[in-house]
Every structure is written in C-alpha cells, then in structure tokens.
Amino acid sequence: MHVDLRLKLFRVIFVVLHVVAFIALMAMMGIVVCNIIGRIFFKSPVMGTLEIAGFAGIIVVAVAIGLAQREHRNIFVDIVVARFPARIRIIIDSFTYLLSLGAVGFLFWAVAESALESLIQEEITLTLGIKTFPFRFIWAAGLLILCGFLLQHLIQNLHKGLKK
Description:
Elements: H1 2-41, H2 49-70, H3 86-121, H4 133-163
Helix pairs in contact: 1-2, 2-4, 3-4
C-alpha cells in the first residue's frame, strides 16, 4: 500500500508539472504571436517579450529534462555499443549514468548557488523588473529532478548487472 501511495503521489506531481509546462509553453507562444502582430500591424512590439519568453522557456525545459530522463526518451548512441555483450553494455551505461550524474550534480550546485545569490541581491530583469530568483530556483529544481532520475537509473542498471 505504501508503494502504491507513493506512485499515485508521483503521478499527481508529474501531471501538475505537465500542466505547468503546458501553460508556460502557451504563454511563450502567445507573447511571441502578440509581439509579431504588434510589430506588423501596430508598429509597436510587446515590451518584455524576450524576458517573458525566456522565463517561460526555463519552466518548459526544467520540467522536460527530468521527465525525458524518467521515460528514457533521451537519445542514446547505440550504434557501437549494440554489438557488445550485455555485461559490457551495462558497465558502459553505468559509467555514462555516473558521469552524467556528476556533471548534472555540479550544474545543479552552480545554479542553486546562483539562485541564492540572485535572491540575496534582489536581482531583477532590465525591461520589466521581474525578480529572477524564482526562475533560477525552478531551473535548479529541474536539474535536481534530473539528478534523481539519473541516480535511479544508475541503481537499476547496477542491479541489473549484478543479476547477470
């Protein structure tokens, strides 16, 4: 029952993340379309289009990177490795997961530090004066989710290797 409840909670969280990413993507598309219409028909662009589209893009990518890893929808280069024995592939995959985990973990640390610095200094954007720290924390959260799935897949891969 405990595992079932955890799975339901994760499903709800991922549905919410999908909805948030969808809203951000629609906002990005809407602001860009309004900007184009404003430039063409009214000779006046929408102020802050780049900032709004950029922040919406951060939200979309932060959600997408973790979910892509969760579903194994990332690109694996399998041309050379496909001919190796299963045990060698598991070793190579495990090394790749470990290397990716280290790189993304380091990136998370740097982004989280940058987000804290942005919060402390009350950094804002130049055009609209939007505080940047929430979007930096969203990016850090997306990287943390990616780290979690990389770790999960590393453990699963090692477990699979121990069985063989």
